[in-house]
UniProtKB/TrEMBL annotation:
InterPro entries: A-amylase/a-glucTrfase_C (IPR015179), A-amylase/a-glucTrfase_central (IPR015178), Branching_enz_MT3115-like (IPR040042), Gal_mutarotase_sf_dom (IPR011013), GH-type_carb-bd (IPR014718), Glyco_hydro/deAcase_b/a-brl (IPR011330), Glyco_hydro_57/38_cen_sf (IPR028995), Glyco_hydro_57_N (IPR004300). GO terms for cellular component: extracellular region. GO terms for molecular function: 1,4-alpha-glucan branching enzyme activity; alpha-amylase activity; carbohydrate binding. Residues 314-398 form the Alpha-amylase/4-alpha-glucanotransferase central domain. Residues 8-271 form the Glycoside hydrolase family 57 N-terminal domain. Keywords: Carbohydrate metabolism, Glycosidase, Hydrolase. This is Alpha-amylase. The lineage of its organism: Bacteria, Pseudomonadati, Planctomycetota, Planctomycetia, Planctomycetales. Its EC number is 3.2.1.1. It comes from Rubinisphaera brasiliensis (strain ATCC 49424 / DSM 5305 / JCM 21570 / IAM 15109 / NBRC 103401 / IFAM 1448).
Length: 731
């Protein structure tokens, strides 16, 4: 009879901030609820459970009975509640002060909900850096949980990891448990007996070992085909029954039990790391493909598994390099955090409900899911990016109020807002905020509509992904029919047909005020294929001057162009006026043109955050006539006005142009991978204003007014607030 070992089962449940209610509900019904139903039938099985704050917040509102059941099981000692940062940020992506703030806030919330604060924490996506040790200890936590992959990258062998370790940073001590990658792959995918047999082998080699499993609760019902496997086919019942039948030598315990009952194995210092798959996803696409091809070439070599586990992937922070849109969110979040930190210097201000609300919105805007992309949609899902900006814009507007701004106001400032060692321009009013990058084509790269709490430039470029190779191979009959870039399912699933025909890539940022110099007679189809651009205008550097007058501010951007045989001077001026704070005025001027030399000049705008396949989201022309859904392609001539409406969002965005223009408009769609398979995702509407002319003089001008009407959104929010207050009074 083998001597007893301790098995820790840690379940991590999470849904992102901003996910659809239906997704929350389906995950609850398919995973979280049935798992608890089975667990209650096996009181000898104990687990450690982590629910992210964004998920717990939803459960408290929609299924308070689940909270009551958790409280009872926690009181009985069958479940240990784990803490962590409130809204599941990647700790490496947020300032230390926010790490401590989020962990402390969630610990306090869990203490109020369940009667005691958590002793340990779940690290989001197990992205680890050693400095997190002191942040966790500062928040009152005793231990955390990471992958054995972290430990192996520090030089530990497999059989050295059956227990837990001490680590420290700046003299602050923290217990660290390694999660078994072996168990992450057998639970719940292999027969339960395989896990029991492996545990028996461990117990024979190392009596009284501590072995930890930790992974997503969504594996138990939400992942493709897992509900039938785990519940309908009885996998979980069989597993828990086996644990119960073998409890004489396998004791299921919590992390806190292990800390209280077993001494640590020793000291460790772990490298910056995450689980193996995450380190691979963080690699540039080309390097990812090299690793995939290497695996494909050597997978039948018996020595390959030993070699592969010694290969290191990338570093999570490089997602901010791989995806510039992620970096934009990161910089916006950092700006909000820095501004709140300044306000904390006034203790009275920091104690106000408005400050606490701004801080909570910041924390929600730090939720990790849309900041990266791996096997799931992540960054490619517009509603998740929009949710981040919703909370950051809300926090920004609250900060403006905390700073004493009221009524109509405008301002313009410049500094390095996006951490590229160059100056950007922030032009703002009480109704909108715009960010301009003079060093990158003079693009308007963020445009926040305060009333709708929406960033109309939360766009996403089309770029190569490793799984695009899989899609192309499938279309041509190549490959072996397996999806080697996903960890959820090896099966190929296509949510739309002919996705290989939709693959296309952008060679400039999909932003606004993107200037193009096009060939004469260029067609819309050629433009969409990035075919024949001069490729000088899109990324040029402008010199910038800021102007401030009473109730009026401007940013003047100017550069010398190199357009073939001519080199005109291009000036574009962005202006906000307090008399019309919802209108961004943009004046374009070309001087030193060569008379008689043809010019085909275009200005591109992009509009994100608006759905493409709904009747209440549509284009309209200069006469106010609806042109069809935002997913349609438009080609208009001699127009002075063009608009986009999203009735659900409560937003009307229109362009008013002084010089009649020809207009192209079309959807920008990416091909990406999610839990459900490969899919086409609408990212933005590209609207191109263009003028093809032969100048008679050396000057050419046009003025564009971008009007952002969010009055419907504001009225709707005020009505909801009044209704909420009325209900509170009645209660």
């Amino acid at each position: 009879m083998p001597r007893p070992i301790r098995l820790i089962l840690a379940i991590h449940n999470h849904q992102p901030v901003g996910n659809f209610d239906g997704v929350f509900e389906n995950a609850y019904q398919d995973s979280y609820l049935p798992f608890l139903d089975v667990l209650e039938q096996y009181p000898a099985v104990r687990i450690s459970l982590h629910n992210s704050g964004s998920l717990l917040d939803w459960i408290e509102k929609h299924h308070p009975e689940y909270i009551e059941r958790l409280r009872r099981l926690a009181d009985q000692g069958q479940i240990e509640i784990l803490g962590g940062p409130f809204y599941e940020p990647i700790l490496a992506s947020i300032p230390s002060r926010d790490r401590v703030g989020q962990m402390t806030a969630y610990g306090n919330h869990l203490g109020e909900l369940f009667g005691s604060k958590p002793r340990g924490m779940w690290v989001p996506e197990r992205v680890w850096e050693q400095s997190f040790t002191r942040d966790a200890v500062s928040a009152g936590l005793e231990y955390t949980v990471l992958d054995d992959f972290h430990f192996k990258n520090a030089g530990f062998g497999e059989e050295e990891l059956y227990g837990y370790f001490e680590t420290e940073d700046d003299g602050k001590m923290l217990h660290v448990f390694p999660i078994s990658e072996k168990l992450r792959y057998t639970i719940p995918f292999a027969d339960p007996e395989e896990t029991i047999d492996w545990l028996r082998e461990v117990s024979e080699k190392q009596p009284e070992a501590v072995v930890a499993f930790g992974d997503d609760g969504e594996k138990f019902g939400t992942w493709p085909d897992s509900k039938k496997h785990v519940y309908e086919d009885g996998w979980l019942v069989r597993f828990f029954q086996l644990l119960t039948d073998n409890r004489d030598w396998v004791h299921t315990v919590t992390f806190s039990d292990a800390v209280d009952q077993v001494a640590p194995l020793g000291r460790c210092y772990l490298p910056d790391c995450s689980y193996r798959e995450m380190t691979e996803w963080a690699l540039p696409t080309g390097r990812q493909l090299e690793l995939i091809h290497l695996h494909r070439k050597h997978r039948d070599d018996p020595e390959w598994p030993e070699v592969r586990k010694r290969l290191r992937g990338g570093f999570w922070r490089n997602f901010l390099v791989k995806y510039p849109e992620s970096h934009e969110m990161y910089c916006r979040m950092r700006e909000i955090s820095d501004r709140l930190q300044e306000l904390r210097k006034d203790p009275e201000l920091a104690a106000t409900a408005m400050f606490r609300s701004a801080e909570d919105h910041l924390y929600r805007g730090q939720c990790n899911c849309p900041y990266w992309h791996g096997a799931f949609g992540g960054l490619y899902l517009p509603h998740l990016r929009n949710a981040i900006y919703y909370h950051l814009i809300t926090a920004d507007s609250l900060i403006e109020q905390l700073q004493g701004k009221a009524g109509r106001w405008v301002e313009v400032t410049s500094r390095d807002f996006n951490l590229d060692a160059r100056q950007e321009v922030r032009i703002a009013s009480d109704q909108m905020v715009g960010y301009v990058s003079p060093a990158n084509g003079g693009h308007l790269y963020e445009l926040d509509v305060r009333g709708a709490r929406t960033n109309l430039l939360a766009t996403l470029n089309r770029r190569p992904e490793p799984y695009h190779e899989t899609i192309l191979d499938h279309a041509t009959g190549g490959g072996d029919g397996a999806n080697e870039t996903a960890s959820v399912s090896g099966d190929l699933k296509f949510k739309q047909e002919d996705l290989h025909l939709k693959l296309g890539y952008d060679n400039y940022p999909r932003k606004s005020l993107v200037d193009h110099v096009l060939p004469a007679g260029m067609s819309l189809e050629a433009f969409q294929q990035n075919d024949g651009f001069l490729e000088e205008a899109e990324t040029a550097v402008f010199q910038t001057t800021l102007k401030r007058e009473d109730g009026r501010v401007s940013a003047v951007l100017e550069r010398r162009c190199q357009w073939g045989d001519q080199s005109p001077v291009l000036t574009k001026t962005l202006t906000l006026d307090s008399s019309s704070p919802s209108m961004l005025h943009v004046d374009y001027e070309l001087t030193e043109l060569q008379p008689g030399t043809p010019v085909h000049f275009a200005i591109e705008f992009n509009f994100s955050s608006m759905a493409s396949q709904a009747d209440d989201r549509y284009y309209y022309d200069q006469d106010g006539v609806s042109l069809g859904r935002l997913g349609t392609q438009q080609e208009l001539h001699e127009q002075n006005r063009f608009g986009l409406v999203d009735e659900w969002l409560g937003l009307d965005a229109s362009l008013e142009i002084s010089r009649p223009t020809n207009i192209w408009a079309y959807p920008v769609e990416t091909v990406s991978q999610s839990e459900g398979g490969f899919e086409l995702v609408h990212q933005s509407c590209a609207v191109i204003l263009r003028w093809e002319f032969t100048p008679e003089q050396s000057e050419w001008k046009t003025s564009i007014g971008l009007l952002l009407d969010s009055s419907a959104a504001q009225a709707r929010r005020l009505a909801a607030k009044a209704e909420s207050q009325s209900m509170a009074v009645e209660l």
